Amino acid sequence: MKLRKIMAGIVATAVAATMAVAASAENAAFVMYADADWYPSLMDATGVNEDAGLTWTAGTQDISADGTYTVSISDVMGTSVDEETGDEVTDKVTAEGAVVFCVDIEGLADAVGCGISNEEEYDKNASSADKMALAKAKGIEVTDVSIKQVLDGAESEVAVDNSKVLFGDIEGNGKLRIEIYNEYGETKADAPINMADIYFNDSLSVTFTITGIDAALAGGEEPAETEKPADTEAPAETEAPTTGDSTKPNTNTGVEGIAVVAGVAVLATGAIIVAKKRK
User: Fold this and answer.
1) Residue of 3, 87, 177, 194 with fewest CB within 10 Å of its CB?
2) Element (H, E) at 5
3) Is residue 68 assigned to a domain?
4) Is residue 230 part of a domain?
């Protein structure tokens, strides 16, 4: 069966789309990914690429504090046309390799002082390595980057050399980017991963630990010490309560991930159809 990919949304009057996107977070992080031949190409967290006829689920996180986080892409679906019958077919897309594979965190570089808004220290013409050095100078560290992928229900891990991962306001847009691989970036020359290891059709996820945010957002100030009153007498002894003490549970509050649910309703009225053969 020969299939052709639908290129929707090029003619504005030809396509009507409805998207359901979760509320955006101030420092929302998402996976930016394009495979070796740019199909799929998933460059934001909307969950819809109308031009390529793609939908996916973007598993995002709000990263406003130190912690370990996981972001992902899953359920990548592509719409094709059966050349023999003319029927539209929606199938799971299999991705191989990568030309772009990053995690972008909205606004975080500016928030912690290593972004383009820091006019005194940020040099837009600096190398990515120098931009990472600025992030580190502000106390930001990204460590323990790991990658998992799922192909037909079977999970595997992609090896990562963390010493080669770059991070910082690499694009000069105020975002903090974790660059795992970019065909047009400095990781091309010395990649942290082997692109041939990437092969999935269910999901691709990145887990990482980021620190230094708490101190940077607090201005680097240490909490003030509380002095004891000069003349404090020891409290008088009291009898033990006759009814048992009640202890409140210790609640540990962390940053929760934002589930992005993306849906698309496309009326393919006069959409342009082009042939694209995958490997």
Assistant:
1) 87
2) strand 3-7
3) yes
4) no
Distance CA 98, CA 127 (A): 22
Residue 132 token pair: 């990472």
Residue 206: which pLDDT band, with cuts at 50, 70 and 90?
very high
Q: Would you say residue 249 lies in a domain?
A: no
Alpha helices in the chain (DSSP H): 108-112, 128-137, 213-217
CA distance 100 to 227: 54
Copy the structure tokens of residue 233: 């007498």
pLDDT tens-digit map of 57-115: 999 999 999 999 999 999 999 998 878 888 888 999 999 999 999 999 999 999 999 99
Strand partners, 177: 104, 168
Q: Kindly report, residue by residue over 155-187, the tens digit of the pLDDT.
A: 999 999 999 999 999 999 999 999 999 999 999
Specify if 234 maps to a domain. Answer: no
134, 104, 116: which is closest to 25 by C-alpha?
104
Side chain identity, residue 174 = G
SS (H, E, C) 106-125: CCHHHHHCCCCCCCCCCCCC
Q: What are phi and psi of 60, to 5 degrees?
A: -105, 170
DSSP string, 137-168: HTT-EEEEEEEEEEETTEEEEE---GGG-EEE
By 3-state DSSP, what share of the chain in percent is helix, strand and coil, each rounded to 5?
15, 35, 50
Task: Mention every residue, 6+ apart, whose C-beta is less than 8 A from residue 119.
Answer: none
Question: How far does the chain reach from its first CA to its final CA, in angstroms?
Answer: 15
In the numeric block, which tokens belong to residue 58?
């973007």
Enter the pTM of the model. Answer: 0.72
Q: Hey, what are 163's tokens?
A: 């010493």
Residue 20 structure tokens: 């359901």
Tally the domains of the chain: 1
